[in-house]
């Protein structure tokens, strides 16, 4: 009881409504030694309504016989008024009348006393009813505060993490404590091709506008497939499927989501074209396996995330992609089953892996999702003026010192692929940086970035351009008449 009465926000307040002032004074004398009980008196019903709305009493002592509005009508009003509907009402009558008592209870009164009761009985009933009402008010206040808190969490954190993570923070009293568990999930990594070069050529506000539109479109698609966005890293996105909310078909959802994201890039690039921005290309890698998932960090700063070798492998798989491609691991393929449409199987040796692994170039998925990537066969045009090139291998962020030479012989009609002749034998998906040699032996200042593709029957190396600067595209266009679609391929 002390927890209730000590609460200054909800004091025990008695409102007595009786046309006989002598009765009110008698009740007030009974309460004079109760320092925690506030007493208010109203002699008529109209005044009682105003005081009750303003002061929110914790209990109303209501006489039944009133000169203006009878007590029964006043009880009806209290119960019809949103502000007073839960305030306890103790009816005080001159005599015990069972039928009248039953009627007051039916109208919503909480108690009935014959006046004047003994002091101990009066105080006990006032405290009893006030305690219940104040507890209700405290619960309502706590609920209101909780709603405000939850709204704040959703508005702030909901911009960066999935609804599932927000729900976990809100619903679990221990949701923000550090800790984790080992769980098999599917991990998706996506990245924009050539965005570093693009960011060096555009104004900062344009870069932010492009990224915001891109992330907005991708976020909507990821949420649609129950993905948990763990992180936006530059122009990359790290997504989990199967955590924190477990779904048995997490590998299927991850792959379907990746295809849907690639298809969504059509809308993203339409938005870019409408504003004069370059088009974007995205690569996506997916891996499935056990990781440790949970809240990572300290009490002051933490995030929901995952750690483990399988996260790194997803990133390695993504590094082999070119624009518009979805590559998945063998674990992911096996978890999904035979509903995949696979274009190619690649044997690669990712960093940190001791033996070669197979990764799969997915172009469609059946089952409940039935999604297909747009597959347009590339037509190559042989260049009349062959272009001498020199290129270096790129590993991570480092460019190797030793260089290779070759001749650019063909360009694809998608302006994203090409072919070169070179004596160098390079593995597929090797990243290279290319310099164009002029007829006088000098090199074009601007560079092109690409990945090595398959070797053709004629001995040409395939190229997938990941970044072509605007100046390079213009100059190559002057030399060949082929690069005429804009600054980004």
Entry summary:
The protein is an alpha+beta fold and 489 residues long. It has helices at 2-5, 21-31, 45-55, 71-80, 98-107, 119-157, 163-171, 195-201, 204-224, 250-274, 309-319, 330-336, 470-480; strands at residues 12-17, 37-42, 59-63, 89-93, 111-114, 179-192, 228-233, 236-241, 282-297, 302-307, 326-329, 340-348, 357-365, 371-372, 380-395, 398-412, 417-421, 431-437, 443-455, 461-468.
Assembly status: single chain
Strand residue percentage: 25-35%
Q: Assign the structural class, choosing from mainly alpha, mainly beta, alpha/beta, alpha+beta, or little secondary structure.
A: alpha+beta
Helix content: 25-40%
Sheet of most strands: 9 strands, mixed
Let me know the number of strands: 20
The rounded Rg comes to 37 Å
Give the terminus-to-terminus CA distance: 74 Å
Mean pLDDT, to the nearest integer, reads 84
Global geometry = rod-shaped
- In DSSP terms (H or I, runs of 4 or more residues), the helix count works out at 13
Low-confidence stretches: 1-6, 482-489
Explain what the structure shows.
Helix 4 links the parallel strand 3 (59-63) and strand 4. With 489 residues, the chain is of the alpha+beta class. The protein has helices at residues 2-5, 21-31, 45-55, 71-80, 98-107, 119-157, 163-171, 195-201, 204-224, 250-274, 309-319, 330-336, 470-480, and strands at residues 12-17, 37-42, 59-63, 89-93, 111-114, 179-192, 228-233, 236-241, 282-297, 302-307, 326-329, 340-348, 357-365, 371-372, 380-395, 398-412, 417-421, 431-437, 443-455, 461-468. Helix 6 (119-157) runs antiparallel to helix 7 (163-171) and helix 9 runs antiparallel to helix 10 (250-274). The longest helix has 39 residues, at 119-157. The strands form three sheets. Strands 6, 7, 8, 9, 10, 11, 12, 13 and 14 form a nine-stranded mixed sheet that branches.
């Amino acid at each position: 009881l002390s927890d209730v009465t000590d609460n200054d926000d909800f004091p025990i307040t008695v409102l007595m409504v009786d046309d006989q002032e002598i009765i009110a004074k008698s009740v007030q004398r009974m309460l004079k030694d109760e320092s925690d009980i506030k007493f208010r008196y109203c002699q008529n019903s109209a005044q009682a309504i105003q005081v009750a709305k303003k002061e929110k009493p914790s209990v109303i002592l209501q006489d039944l016989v009133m000169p203006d509005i009878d007590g029964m009508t006043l009880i009806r009003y209290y119960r019809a008024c949103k502000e007073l509907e839960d305030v306890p009402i103790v009816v005080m009558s001159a005599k015990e009348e069972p039928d009248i008592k039953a009627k007051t209870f039916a109208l919503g009164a909480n108690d009935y006393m014959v006046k004047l009761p003994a002091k101990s009985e009066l105080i006990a009933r006032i405290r009893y009813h006030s305690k219940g009402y104040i507890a209700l008010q405290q619960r309502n206040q706590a609920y209101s505060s909780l709603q405000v808190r939850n709204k704040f969490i959703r508005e702030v954190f909901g911009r960066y993490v999935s609804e599932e993570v927000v729900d976990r923070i809100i619903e679990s009293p221990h949701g923000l404590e550090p800790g984790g568990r080992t769980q098999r999930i599917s991990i998706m990594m996506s990245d924009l091709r050539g965005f570093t070069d693009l960011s060096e050529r555009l104004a900062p506000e344009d870069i932010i506008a492009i990224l915001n539109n891109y992330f907005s479109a991708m976020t909507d698609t990821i949420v649609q497939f129950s993905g948990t966005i763990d992180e936006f890293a530059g122009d990359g996105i790290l997504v989990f499927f199967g955590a924190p909310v477990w779904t048995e078909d997490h590998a299927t959802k991850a792959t379907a989501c990746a295809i849907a994201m690639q298809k969504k890039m059509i809308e993203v690039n339409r938005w870019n074209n409408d504003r004069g921005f370059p088009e974007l290309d995205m690569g996506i890698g997916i891996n499935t396996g056990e990781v440790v998932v949970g809240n990572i960090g300290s009490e002051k700063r933490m995030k929901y995330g995952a750690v483990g070798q399988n996260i790194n492998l997803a990133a390695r798989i993504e590094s082999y992609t070119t624009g518009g491609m979805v590559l998945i691991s063998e674990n992911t393929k096996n978890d999904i089953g035979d509903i995949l449409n696979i274009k190619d199987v690649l044997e690669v040796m990712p960093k940190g892996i001791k033996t070669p692994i197979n990764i799969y170039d997915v172009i469609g998925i059946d089952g409940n999702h039935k999604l297909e990537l747009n597959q347009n066969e590339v037509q190559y045009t042989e260049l009349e003026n062959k272009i001498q090139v020199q290129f270096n291998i790129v590993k991570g962020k480092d460019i190797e010192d030793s260089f290779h030479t070759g001749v650019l012989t063909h360009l694809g009609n998608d302006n994203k692929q090409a072919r070169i002749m070179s004596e160098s034998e390079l593995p597929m998906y090797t990243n290279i940086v290319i310099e164009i040699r002029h007829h006088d032996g000098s090199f074009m200042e601007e560079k092109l970035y690409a990945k090595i593709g398959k070797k053709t029957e004629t001995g040409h190396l395939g190229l997938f351009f990941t970044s072509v600067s605007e100046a390079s595209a213009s100059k190559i266009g002057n030399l060949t008449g082929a690069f005429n679609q804009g600054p980004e391929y």
